[in-house]
Amino acid sequence: MSLVLQNIRKVLKRDGFVLFRDYATGDLAQERLISKEQKISDNFYVRGDGTRAFYFSDEFLTNLFKENGFDTDEHFLCLKKVENRSREIVMNRRWVQAVFHLGCGKSDLKTEGNVKELGMECPEPAIPIKAEGNANEFDIDISEGIAFEMFGISSSSEEVVELNINELHFKINVVSREYQHTCKSTGLMLWESARFMASVLSENPRIVSGKRVLELGCGCAGICSMVAASKSAQLVVATDGDSKALDLLNQNINLNLKPSLFAKLITMKLEWGNKDDIDSIRRMNDKGFDIILGTDVAYVLEAILPLFETARELICHRRVDDGGGGAIKDEEPAGLILCHVPRRVDELSILSAASRYGFKLVDRWPHTETTVITSPDIINKWFSHGHCANSLPTTNLSILYFYSRV
Question: pTM of this prediction?
Answer without folding.
Answer: 0.61
